[in-house]
Task: structure prediction
Amino acid sequence: MIADAELDPAAVEIGSFFPHSPDAVWRALTEPVLLERWLMRSIGFAASIGTDFTFAVPGQPTAEIACEVLAARPGEQLTLSWVDLRAEHPARWIVDWTIRPHGNARDFC
Result:
């Protein structure tokens, strides 16, 4: 995997600022109840390298995304492999969330 999105034409990089501490963002990424609120329901997820799990895609019929945890550094990074099992020609994607504090610590909720 190429770390610099400018060097990899297939990479998509999106940045967002959340007015929360890195620990709060980590919880939203790794606690299944919170993850389901903003992304999808996970089945068998644990923020531990090598964990295989699925995301249940809502709809009729329900679809699944097969995932594996590739990196898990609490409060810093969560990286998953991601394969949409309903695709005619499934492709493996890498989804990476890197958490960096921004601004003054007193600004965090």
About this structure: The domain at 17-98 is CATH 3.30.530.20 (Alpha-D-Glucose-1,6-Bisphosphate; Chain A, domain 4). The chain has one domain: 17-98. The first helix runs from residue 22 to 30. The beta strands are 41-43, 52-57, 63-73, 77-84, 92-98.
